């Protein structure tokens, strides 16, 4: 175990390494310049010659990315690997967040999903090697793409297309992200690269490996080549923090049993109407993950007019999580057995109607320990080909299949209870994010706990995307190109869920759990304010052996068992113009339209009845993009397009639940039509010097149809549900039920502006040359209706931050390369409307700082040092505009030392 002092020194030295490296490099260059005789003044003809500027490494990748942006007709941003298997960030999502308008969500300290221009992952379409893909990790039941499934070393480039073109298949309101793995024709001849790194986390004090390798060969004529790469990494973060699982507001069933300190009915009413935490607890989830990625690519070019590309990608992410908790479970039970039996002995309530302090009697305390194994296996194979029939006529096609198979082979937990505890204390008066909790008894004594529940669950989620595309392109003349094509895609989703949960009663309960318990201690690197810190939890392996839980039969969970089969067929026609106008200004434009037909079959359970539903719809999606260069280095862009994004998978299931007793129905809506919008984009870019850019872009999205949830009343017989679901409980088909389900609402608007600046500081004195800067700022505002047309309820989109900003200061000269980056986003909603009487759910803003340095020991050997999340930023999630804490946790800093070799 590394000592705390050593750990602190490591982190401090890592944080200062970049600044020191930059300073010493500048000084070394200055010293070299001062001790070298000044060269003679060049002759006139030599002085008039333009020196060729050659950039390498990080600056080279920035320069190539700017070329991609400048040459495109629509709004495009790109990130390119600076060297073989050397992507500029440890995680794909963390790399993408450097681009304007892109933010990421972190899970377990790692980038997970992205939001582009205020639209979350469900509105972003991702393609790998030109083929649509959905990569799903634990708990993902949407169309959102989990970037943490993949190692960044496997990819050469990321391209984010923010405007829609007719030749880009439909399915995005926000952006289309293209990920490209390496191919042999990217390099000449034989190339090889390898890297080995060790990562140290400030909480766990463990050094863990990260290795990658690539081998590529192409013959001298570049007619045939093969490439293979591999990447492996191991992570063991600990997510320490405090959470409440929301806060509870008063309803008709959740009154406290009494308040001994209350002296008047008014004071009692104040206590009864205040918000209290549902399950207050400290938690330290220990995560152990391994990620393996493989790519293979072969390219064959039998002639100058024909080429075939075969790409194979495999990724395997295996994760194990253990989450011990000690919690007051009765606050989450709005009945006589829960908060209805609790007595308030002392309290403090702030001006936001929130308990900040309380001493309670008759509280049920629960020790819960659970483990979960998650396994995601992603496989993709794609074959692309193109052929030029003549200088004017070209065709290309692609077929591919992407398979993302997620499984949770075990989710096991044991619940140890001690009921009716007196003197439970919750004190958040000093800091509501880190309250002091005392449980009123010796929580480290296993004899005082009783085993009351045990749970086991297994689930799988299979996503298969099959794609076939074909395009033809014809140059009418040097100014006009016509393009057309067809895209067929089949999307298959299968969810399965089973459990063997057991609630123990009477003599089946185990009083005294010493035979299968252990004591854990919370808080390795967390500002723990005081209270009970060590407590008993079940040792899962011992508890399994003691209880024989896994011998109980598995029961199908109907609510999470469903299927979706979606067939998408689309075709497009497009004209591409490349001309000069108004006295010689270059103009590039594309005009076209895509027609998309969607057919859907969805299946799901309503209680125990399996139901099948069908739906189909057609969209006509015109688009236009213009790029005008009024003067050298200045680009003006305009984009207008109709766009659509298909509904999330969870909304499409016909499954749900029916309660004849309460006359309620909750289910999905397979008749949903997609999100539809009209996008307007305008941008001005100034490439004022090599590797340099100043740009501003404004965008506006008119969302015509936004999927929301509503509750209406309907006669049961009109719902087309089996009458057998209600007649056995005494209800009749003519009875009126409250029906809650998603529907196509009235929509709203989204607007924003992006600013971008990039420049190497070549104007600095010779001693300081090598510095440069990349920065961007995005402002987004949205207003969508979460209610109905008759009862509107407007707010901003979930996942949308009003402001985001990224900045990178870099230094690159001779053998040294260094950069420090900051990524900042303002707060955003995570759920709206809120639950349990709260207006909303959200997460406060954050700022992450990273650095990276490398020194080239030899031409083919480089030493690297990186730091991730240097400030150890906390995730701070809340509920309600009153800012009641929901989750407050961190995962620590990471320092990574490694070497990279190329041949």
From TrEMBL:
Domain named TonB-dependent receptor-like beta-barrel: residues: 358-870
Alphabetized UniProt keyword annotations: Cell outer membrane, Membrane, Receptor, Signal, TonB box
InterPro entries recorded: Beta-barrel_TonB, Beta-barrel_TonB_sf, Plug_dom, Plug_dom_sf, TonB_rcpt_bac
Subcellular location: Cell outer membrane
Pfam families named among the record's database cross-references: Plug, TonB_dep_Rec_b-barrel
Residues in TonB-dependent receptor plug domain copies: 69-175
Signal peptide: 1-30
Main location: membrane
Family to which this protein belongs: Belongs to the TonB-dependent receptor family.
Name the record gives this protein: TonB-dependent receptor
Organism per entry: Caulobacter rhizosphaerae
């Amino acid at each position: 175990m590394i000592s705390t002092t050593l750990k602190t020194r490591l982190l401090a030295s890592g944080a200062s390494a970049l600044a020191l490296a930059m300073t010493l490099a500048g000084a070394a260059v200055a010293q070299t310049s001062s001790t070298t005789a000044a060269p003679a003044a060049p002759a006139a003809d030599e002085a008039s010659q333009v020196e060729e500027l050659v950039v390498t490494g990080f600056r080279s990748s920035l320069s190539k990315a700017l070329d991609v942006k400048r040459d495109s007709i629509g709004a495009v941003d790109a990130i390119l690997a600076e060297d073989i298997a050397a992507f500029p960030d440890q995680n794909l999502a963390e790399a993408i967040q450097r681009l304007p308008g892109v933010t990421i969500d972190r899970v377990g300290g790692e980038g997970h999903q992205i939001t582009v221009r205020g639209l979350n992952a469900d509105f972003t379409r991702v393609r790998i090697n030109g083929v649509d893909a959905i990569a799903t990790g634990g708990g993902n039941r949407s169309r959102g793409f989990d970037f943490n499934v993949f190692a960044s070393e496997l990819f050469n480039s990321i391209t984010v297309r923010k405007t829609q073109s007719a030749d880009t298949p439909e399915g995005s309101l926000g952006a289309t992200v293209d990920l490209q793995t390496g191919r042999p024709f990217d390099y000449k001849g034989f190339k090889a690269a390898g890297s080995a790194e060790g990562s140290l986390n400030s909480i766990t004090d463990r050094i863990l490996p990260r290795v990658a390798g690539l081998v590529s060969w192409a013959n001298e004529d570049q007619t045939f080549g093969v490439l293979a790469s591999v990447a492996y990494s191991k992570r063991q973060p600990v997510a320490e923090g405090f959470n409440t699982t929301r806060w509870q507001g008063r309803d008709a069933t959740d009154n406290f049993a009494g308040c001994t300190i209350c002296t008047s009915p008014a004071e009692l009413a104040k206590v009864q109407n205040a918000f209290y935490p549902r399950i207050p607890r400290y938690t330290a989830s220990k995560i152990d993950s391994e990620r393996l990625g493989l790519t293979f690519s072969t390219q064959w070019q039998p002639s100058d007019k024909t080429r075939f590309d075969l790409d194979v990608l495999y990724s395997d992410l295996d994760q194990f999580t253990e989450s011990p908790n000690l919690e007051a479970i009765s606050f989450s039970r709005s009945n006589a057995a829960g908060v209805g039996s609790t007595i308030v002995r002392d309290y403090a309530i702030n001006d936001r109607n929130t308990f900040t302090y309380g001493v309670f009697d008759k509280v049920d305390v629960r020790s819960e320990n659970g483990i979960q194994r998650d396994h995601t296996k992603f496989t993709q194979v794609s074959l692309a080909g193109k052929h030029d029939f003549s200088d004017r006529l070209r065709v290309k096609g692609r077929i591919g299949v992407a398979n993302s198979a997620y499984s949770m082979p075990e989710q096991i937990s044991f619940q140890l209870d001690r009921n009716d505890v007196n003197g439970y204390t919750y004190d958040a008066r000093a800091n509501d994010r880190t309250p002091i909790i005392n449980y009123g008894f010796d929580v480290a004594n296993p004899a005082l706990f009783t085993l009351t529940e045990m749970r086991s669950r297994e689930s799988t989620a299979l996503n298969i995307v099959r794609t076939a595309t074909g395009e033809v392109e014809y140059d009418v003349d040097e100014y006009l190109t016509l393009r057309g094509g067809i895209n067929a895609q089949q999307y298959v989703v299968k969810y399965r869920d089973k459990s063997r949960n057991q609630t123990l009663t009477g003599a089946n309960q185990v009083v005294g759990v010493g035979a299968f318990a252990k004591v854990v201690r919370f808080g390795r690197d967390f500002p723990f304010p005081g209270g009970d810190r060590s407590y008993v939890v079940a040792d899962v392996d011992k508890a399994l052996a003691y209880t024989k839980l896994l011998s109980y039969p598995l029961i199908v969970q109907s609510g999470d068992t469903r299927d979706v089969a979606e067939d998408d067929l689309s075709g497009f026609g497009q004209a591409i113009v490349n001309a000069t106008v108004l006295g010689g200004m270059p103009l590039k434009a594309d005009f076209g339209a895509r027609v998309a037909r969607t057919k859907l079959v969805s299946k799901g359970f309503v209680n125990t009845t399996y139901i099948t539903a069908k739906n189909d719809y057609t969209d006509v999606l015109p688009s236009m993009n213009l790029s005008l260069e009024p003067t050298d280095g200045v680009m003006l862009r305009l984009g207008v397009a109709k766009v659509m994004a298909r509904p999330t998978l969870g909304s499409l299931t016909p499954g749900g639940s029916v309660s004849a007793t309460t006359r309620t129905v909750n289910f999905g809506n397979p008749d949903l039509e997609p999100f539809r919008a009209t996008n307007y984009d305008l941008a001005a870019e100034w490439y004022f010097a090599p590797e340099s850019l100043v740009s501003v872009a404004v965008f506006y999205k008119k969302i015509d149809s936004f999927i929301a949830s509503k509750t209406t009343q309907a006669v049961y017989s009109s719902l087309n549900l089996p009458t057998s679901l209600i007649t056995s409980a005494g209800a009749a088909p003519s009875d009126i039920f409250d029906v809650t389900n998603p529907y196509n609402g009235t929509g709203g608007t989204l607007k924003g502006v992006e600013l971008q600046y990039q420049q190497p500081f070549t104007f600095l004195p010779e001693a300081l040359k090598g510095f440069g800067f990349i920065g961007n700022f995005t402002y987004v505002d949205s207003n969508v209706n979460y209610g109905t047309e008759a009862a509107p309820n407007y707010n901003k989109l979930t996942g949308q931050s009003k402001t985001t900003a990224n900045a990178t200061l870099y230094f690159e000269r001779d053998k040294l390369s260094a950069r420090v980056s900051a990524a900042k986003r303002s707060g955003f909603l995570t759920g709206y409307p809120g639950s349990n009487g709260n207006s909303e759910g959200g997460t406060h803003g954050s700022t992450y700082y990273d650095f990276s340095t490398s020194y080239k020991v030899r031409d083919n050997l480089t030493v690297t040092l990186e730091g991730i999340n240097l400030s150890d930023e906390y995730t701070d999630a809340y509920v309600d505009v009153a800012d009641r804490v929901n989750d407050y946790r961190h995962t620590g800093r990471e320092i990574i030392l490694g070497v990279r070799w190329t041949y």
